[in-house]
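Here is the promised in-class demo. Please do not try to memorize the tokens; focus on the logic of going from shape to residues.
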């Protein structure tokens, strides 16, 4: 009784690998976006898959310089299988237009491709199991800059416990696991939050202008 468990007796079946270990191998094996999409859609390690209607991978231009990453699909995204097409997505389109961009000129995805039931917050374990896929997704898109849309995406990508109000307003370097130089990353307020708190639009505007300026300067190192 008690004490650390000893090694498994020889011949005993090995303990199954945690789903995240499997996810990392699967994601790493994807050589392009089409393979990543197919492999992620077939992945059974995230329980959200069981309750979602659709797998929501990405929208926009795969060769885009800007990659927007939100949290997870909402009801309309789940119905249509496209990220950011509900009320928050329509505001995101207007935010893009404010800096002279259209949805088709950027790349848009989420940390999670399946809607959490009732739009609840995703759990840490749901995020952890899907993390290797968004990391590989960023590496395959290879954007000049990443925009974390909202607090969840910012915290996950920056591996931070700080809230969005502390993470927005400055540039970070996102070190793509297994890839080259860090990619500049900026966090912005989530459009769903701005719909509830329109008084905060000024902060979002400041960040969008900074993003536009950085792209125009062609400064892609962090
Ligand atoms: N909110 C997100 O974070 N992503 C979507 O796709 C829609 C709403």
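The designed amino acids, position by position:
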């Amino acid at each position: 009784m008690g004490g650390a468990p000893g090694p498994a007796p020889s011949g005993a079946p090995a303990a199954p690998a945690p789903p995240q270990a499997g996810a990392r191998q699967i994601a790493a094996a994807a050589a392009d976006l089409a393979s990543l999409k197919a492999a992620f859609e077939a992945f059974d390690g995230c329980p959200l898959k069981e309750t979602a209607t659709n797998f929501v991978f990405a929208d926009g231009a795969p060769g885009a310089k800007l990659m927007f990453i939100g949290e997870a699909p909402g009801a309309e995204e789940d119905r249509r299988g496209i990220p950011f097409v509900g009320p928050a997505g329509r505001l995101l389109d207007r935010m893009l237009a404010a800096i002279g961009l259209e949805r088709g000129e950027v790349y848009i995805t989420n940390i999670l491709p399946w809607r959490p039931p009732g739009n609840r917050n995703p759990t840490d374990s749901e995020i952890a199991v899907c993390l290797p896929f968004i990391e590989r997704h960023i590496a395959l898109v290879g954007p000049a800059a990443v925009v974390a849309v909202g607090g969840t995406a910012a915290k996950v990508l920056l591996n931070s416990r700080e809230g969005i109000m502390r993470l927005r307003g400055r540039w970070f370097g996102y070190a793509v696991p297994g890839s080259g130089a860090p990619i500049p990353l900026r966090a912005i307020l989530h459009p769903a939050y701005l719909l509830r708190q329109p008084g905060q639009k000024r902060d979002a505007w400041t960040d969008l202008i900074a993003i536009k300026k950085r792209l125009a300067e062609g400064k892609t190192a962090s």
